[in-house]
């Protein structure tokens, strides 16, 4: 009945295969597009789950990947940090299950999946850092950038701790959100390595640019970036919080009531929060963005066993995509009905 199997490690080959299978199986509502190439030339793929207006998934998929002008939209991103593969599994499994419930016209834990998908376009980039995921699963020896990678320091016990892309850049510190000059690297990571190096210049990485271009092209209403670990949410930063007229906090409080993801304090120091994807999205797209840290906290970047995904993540997070889709509808309606209050978001 379902395509995506998350009972154990979910390898890149299987993910690409499942993306094709899902787009075939649900070709009336699901389409995919390559939005960029990684350092090693792997495809960075986006999926669009939408119930209108362009017909079949075949042929005009590029056109179909543009968001509908008349509907709000939400972007979900997984795997920007290589080792956090629960975030990839969640995106893929949400796509599979939401398509299923849409076609069956059945609810999922109280969410009316069909009516949500009728009201909002859902976009997913399940694997934002495919080279990194390959390193985590198969080691740096399988990388076409091996000669450079073998000179880099691995922070953590081995390649399963790899967090960066195949240039040794932490993609979630590489975005040009206006804080580049003050954004610091952690001491010891000022050169390419497995973790925490921000890069030599903002937006330097092809994976960063794939997301930047995709967002600029589509103007999503809301963005959610899934990470691990901590079961918490980074939902606002001091540089942009005032833009949203309290809408970000309202969403956060509702999320807090319904899910296990703890509300953190507003990030205050751009030296520390700057140049993340969610920070870039808030600053440049002027829309709320949420970083969700899935799974219980683990010290030192170690990850839980992949076999624990269903218990530690899926059980708790399976409807978060639908929750945020509904919030995108609310944001869109609020901006339309009270343009004055949300003027900062449309300037
Ligand atoms: Zn992360």
How is the topology of this model organized?
Elements: H1 12-25, E1 30-37, E2 43-49, H2 61-64, E3 73-77, H3 86-104, H4 113-119, E4 121-125, H5 130-138, H6 146-149, H7 206-218, E5 222-228, E6 232-234, H8 247-258, E7 262-263, H9 270-273, H10 277-285, E8 289-294, H11 309-317, H12 320-337, H13 343-346
Parallel strand pairs: 3-4, 3-5, 5-8, 6-7
Antiparallel strand pairs: 1-2, 2-4, 6-8
The structure holds zinc ion.
Give the biggest beta sheet. 8 strands, mixed
CATH class: Alpha Beta
Q: How large a portion of the residues is in β-strands, by DSSP E?
A: 5-15%
- Structural class of the helix and strand makeup? alpha/beta
| Morphology | globular
**Count of beta strands:** 8
Radius of gyration: 19 Å
The portion of residues assigned to helices is 25-40%
Strand line-up across the major sheet: 1-2-4-3-5-8-6-7
First-last Cα distance: 46 Å
Ions, cofactors and other ligands present here are:
zinc ion
- Number of structural domains: 1
CATH superfamily: Zn peptidases
Please count the helical segments: 13
CATH topology grouping: Aminopeptidase
Mean pLDDT: 94
Series of secondary-structure elements, N-terminal to C-terminal? HEEHEHHEHHHEEHEHHEHHH
Keywords:
alpha/beta; Aminopeptidase; 8-stranded mixed sheet; binds zinc ion
Describe this structure in words.
The protein is an alpha/beta fold and 347 residues long. The protein has a single domain (12-133, 203-346), classed as Aminopeptidase, CATH 3.40.630. Helix content is 36%, strand content 12%. It contains 13 helices and eight strands. Strand 1 (30-37) and strand 2 (43-49) form a beta hairpin. The site of zinc ion has 3 residues, from loops. Zinc ion binds at residues 81, 84, 227.
């Amino acid at each position: 009945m379902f395509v995506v199997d998350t009972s154990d490690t979910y390898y890149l080959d299987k993910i690409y295969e499942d993306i094709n299978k899902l787009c075939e199986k649900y070709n009336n509502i699901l389409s995919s597009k390559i939005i960029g190439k990684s350092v090693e030339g792997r495809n960075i793929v986006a999926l669009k789950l939408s119930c209108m207006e362009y017909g079949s998934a075949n042929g005009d998929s590029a056109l179909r990947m543009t968001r509908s002008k008349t509907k709000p939209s939400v972007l979900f991103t997984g795997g920007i940090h290589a080792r956090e593969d629960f975030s990839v599994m969640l995106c893929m499994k949400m796509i599979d299950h939401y398509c299923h419930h849409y076609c069956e016209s059945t609810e999922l834990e109280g969410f009316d999946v069909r009516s949500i998908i009728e009201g909002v376009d859902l976009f997913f980039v399940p694997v934002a850092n495919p080279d990194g995921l390959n390193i985590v699963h198969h080691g740096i020896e399988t990388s076409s950038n091996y000669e450079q990678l073998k000179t880099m320091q691995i922070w953590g016990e081995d390649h399963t701790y790899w967090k960066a892309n195949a240039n040794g850049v932490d993609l979630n510190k590489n975005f040009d959100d206006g804080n580049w000059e003050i954004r610091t690297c952690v001491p010891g990571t000022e050169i390419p390595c497995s973790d925490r190096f921000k890069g030599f210049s903002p937006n330097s990485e092809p994976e960063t640019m794939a997301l930047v271009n995709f967002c600029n092209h589509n103007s999503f209403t809301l963005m959610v970036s899934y990470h691990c670990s901590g079961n918490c949410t980074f939902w606002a930063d001091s540089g942009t919080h005032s833009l949203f007229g309290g809408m970000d906090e309202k969403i956060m409080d509702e999320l807090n009531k319904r899910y296990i993801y703890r509300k953190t304090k507003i990030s205050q120091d751009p030296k520390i929060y700057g140049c993340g994807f969610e920070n870039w999205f808030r600053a440049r797209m002027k829309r709320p963005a949420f970083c969700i840290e899935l799974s219980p906290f683990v010290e030192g970047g170690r990850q839980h066993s992949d076999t624990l995904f269903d218990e530690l993540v899926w059980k708790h997070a399976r409807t978060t995509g639908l929750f945020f889709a509904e919030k995108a509808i609310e944001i869109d309606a609020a901006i339309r009905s009270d343009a004055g209050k949300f003027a900062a978001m449309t300037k």
